[in-house]
User: Which sequence fits this backbone?
DNA sequence: TTGAAAGCGATACCAT
DNA sequence: ATGGTATCGCTTTCAA
């Protein structure tokens, strides 16, 4: 056969050209990925394993930004991007799991795909959750939530409401009950709640479980329902702490619709600092968590040969008009 | 060896369990994807080949929605999703192209990846462009643009402005010149421009090239600059026709900032009907192009064994307040 | 410098 | 029903 593909330097350019052309005519379509990958034990494919469905993750601004960061760095390193979801897991169709050279798990995975991948010994980076089995990229959700809540609560408001994400195991929008309050968990939303509660505590304020909403999905549709409920309470909350920008932006829109002035009547805070939040009117006070950079950092960690250490990215309080200091 | 993996029905569940456990201990990590794929000549991986970079496409609401639709149907059919970009093309690292069983090309690809894939004989679906070599999923951009422009121009406005996307080959925001006007092209943006011009013509209106902006990328950052330029014109345009919702939403925001009343002072139309447009204030009059459904349809076409025919999805005029009928 | 051959791991097929 | 074996296409190594 020909080494035209593998040792291009050893042939004249002309000859190589001719060989390539002729073999193309004979029905040769370039190197076979599966064969190469089998032989080399390497594929140059990196998988991102999403905790939610791929479709939902693509619709979520936070996940979407993370993926952008991942794609950026993978592109620079000539790696291919395979999207997997731990949701549609199952031993049956798990064969694709053996293809990638490395894995970025975004969010604590369901099923046992993590276990299987771990056993394969291939490099893994955990993003937005902790595990003993891999380096991770995280933020300090509790601190971020504490900081923004602290900012919002400085004037000791009377009625504080929390619009929370995925706080309990239910597909329905609902408010918490007393026994929902003391769940110990390392989930993101629980950490954020903890931060809120700590800030309340520090300001010597209290909150009733019924003032804390559970929203099962980070979508505008869900969030709007909860936002309407919260904004039609009597008395009106002074402060609404939202666990995501998607939720907070829904509150802003709903307030506009209900002719409630932000921040004069209600102060609103978000979390994430998604692109849309950077352009909203009124501006959204929130916690920047650098999702794009998170994706980049995770990917660099994964591709770096030298075993670097886990990373905790800084969060930053972004003060805009939806909850500005009334000095 | 064992057939435990391949013929599970022929062994007792117990035995299978034991074999699986033991082989795991011996360091067996499940079937090898590359080997299976090589042997079977099939991978269950489908590639979406994006005309722009992966990172940019993920940030674009239209591309993002298409991908959601694709991911949804692939999930139902237990196919994996590989993201490729024709932008970072090059024979060198094109090996991954031989992996997928099928390809969805989103937007006319650059480089020659399309040619190579075509020669491989694998199924291809073209989305948002036409080719003789594959079935395609499209919309009628000219008609869509014509319809929305017609709606906007019904009252014979004096000053019409177009904020166009990728009309000329430049990385800079600029206005068109006379010779830019008569480029024949099947590009999306050219079709939309054609629709606008036809509507103007039909209303016996004219537009100067200097009233047509070129915006190189569909990002809010770019769009805002052009929006500001258009909204600080004197006299103020009566109508601004935007070739995408991202652009139109930027116009709405900028108008708000400049205290220009929409639609009283300026009527604004978009194109796409992205999720954000469905929630904007004021509501955005636009052309719904069903990106999500486009992704679904393309994927079904690809996976369907029976050679179905190319599809042209309907566009629909969505009238909201940014350009409502003043009856 | 070029060619020949072994082997990556799963599967399909044929033999038992 | 079970076990053996050739084969997919490439890369690596070894021989000429």
Assistant:
């Amino acid at each position: 056969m020909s080494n035209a593909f593998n040792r291009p330097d050893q042939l004249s350019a002309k000859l190589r050209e001719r060989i390539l052309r002729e073999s193309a005519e004979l029905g040769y379509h370039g190197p076979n990925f599966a064969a190469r990958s089998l032989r080399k034990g390497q594929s140059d494919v990196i998988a991102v394993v999403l905790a939610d469905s791929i479709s939902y993750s693509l619709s979520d601004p936070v996940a979407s930004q993370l993926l952008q960061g991942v794609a950026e760095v993978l592109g620079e390193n000539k790696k291919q991007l395979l999207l997997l979801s731990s949701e549609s897991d199952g031993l049956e169709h798990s064969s694709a799991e053996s293809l990638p050279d490395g894995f970025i798990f975004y969010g604590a995975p369901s099923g046992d795909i993590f276990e299987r991948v771990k056993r394969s010994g291939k490099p893994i980076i955990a993003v937005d959750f902790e595990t003993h089995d891999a380096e991770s990229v995280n933020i300090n959700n509790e601190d971020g939530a504490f900081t923004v809540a602290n900012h919002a609560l400085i004037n000791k408001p009377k009625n504080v409401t929390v619009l929370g994400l995925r706080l309990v195991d239910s597909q329905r929008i609902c408010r918490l009950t007393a026994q929902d309050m003391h769940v110990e968990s390392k989930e993101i939303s629980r950490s954020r709640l903890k931060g809120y509660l700590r800030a309340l505590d520090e300001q010597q304020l209290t909150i009733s479980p019924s003032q804390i909403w559970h929203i099962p999905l980070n979508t505008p549709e869900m969030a709007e329902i909860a936002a309407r409920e919260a904004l039609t309470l009597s008395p009106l909350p002074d402060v609404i702490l939202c666990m995501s920008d998607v939720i907070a932006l829904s509150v802003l829109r709903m307030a506009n619709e209900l002719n409630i002035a932000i921040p004069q009547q209600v102060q609103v805070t978000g979390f994430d600092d998604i692109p849309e939040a950077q352009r909203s009117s009124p501006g959204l006070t929130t916690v920047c968590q650098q999702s794009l950079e998170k994706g980049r950092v995770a990917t660099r960690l994964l591709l770096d040969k030298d075993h670097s250490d886990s990373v905790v990215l800084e969060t930053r309080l972004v003060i805009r008009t939806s909850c500005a200091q009334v000095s």
Notes: Chain A touches chain B through 54 residues (CB under 8 Å). Chain A has a mean pLDDT of 92. Chain A has ten helices and 13 strands.
